């Protein structure tokens, strides 16, 4: 087997590492670990198909009585929705909690209105895996990020639960931070750093939270072309003096990113070339990409032929379109200097590496300097 160059696999920074064990089947049964209510098998192409051999603790499988009991428990234990009062003293720490969609801000439009996100604290096993993360290996970071999401994020819809990998590519770190905040709800582990104020030279403290993240969203005029119901973009090139047929663009998801990366890995192993410019467009051109690389080959070939049929005008237009509809997470944090009131900007960073995200602040005396 050929050695994969890691930099080759990072052609598009948004692409996550492949998600394990995806088996495409017409029906799927999902069980909770304790207790184990069973979800009825769904017809072919149902929204209940899942990624992975199982996705445990499915909230969506609860019956009406279970839901009422859970609701009462949430009220009794004061399990407020994430974002409303996550910093309060939460007694019950093992269950799921609803995520307030308002936290997504303008990005909420990129999910169907009837989707509900739920998270739970990271397990001891997940944190143990996190402690072994290699800060210098992007693939290792992707793997552990996805394991955290796999065990701690649930999507509930009227049609039943959906895999965690249906979240949009740009929201992965946002949900990781939400899970982190619920895991360390008492503030046991903070990511803090400071930046000198450019106006008065005094240190300005920064604390990384989910609410610290900022996103560059499409402008209102462009958002007018987004179909909330269908969750896609319909672009009409003739409106921009380009004589081509209308084209539908689809939102990038972690599942799609992962399956594209699996396909890329196979191509590199077979010493086959990859058009890196085409890869930039692929997550938008395809509604789905199969986990089966044989099927993915056929799918991707079809989209690549469409891509290569574009003339210069069409390519230039589509390049503009992608740049204007992508949601870009900012790498900066902004706050106000407590001394002089000047606005201060700094880069998001981890002084102790990415592994500090899920590292518990030790109460005992530190062993060594590493």
How do the strands and helices of this protein lay out in sequence?
Blueprint: H1 6-9, H2 64-76, E1 97-98, E2 116-119, H3 124-131, H4 138-152, E3 153-157, E4 160-162, H5 172-183, E5 192-196, E6 203-207, E7 215-216, H6 220-223, E8 226-227, E9 232-235, E10 247-250, H7 254-269, H8 276-285, H9 293-308, H10 312-325, E11 328-329, E12 332-336, E13 343-347
Antiparallel strand pairs: 1-2, 2-3, 3-4, 5-6, 7-11, 8-9, 9-10, 12-13
Helix pairs in contact: 3-4, 4-5, 8-9
Structural class: alpha+beta
Biggest pleated sheet? 4 strands, antiparallel
Radius of gyration: 22 Å
Number of E strands: 13
Termini, distance in Å?
36 Å
Report what the structure shows.
The protein is of the alpha+beta class and 370 residues long. The chain folds into two domains: 6-190, no CATH class; 218-326, no CATH class. It is built from ten helices and 13 strands. The strands form five sheets. Strands 1-2-3-4 form a four-stranded antiparallel beta sheet. A hairpin with a 2-residue loop joins strand 3 and strand 4. The longest helix is centred in the last third of the chain and has 16 residues, at 254-269. It is globular, with a radius of gyration of 22 Å.
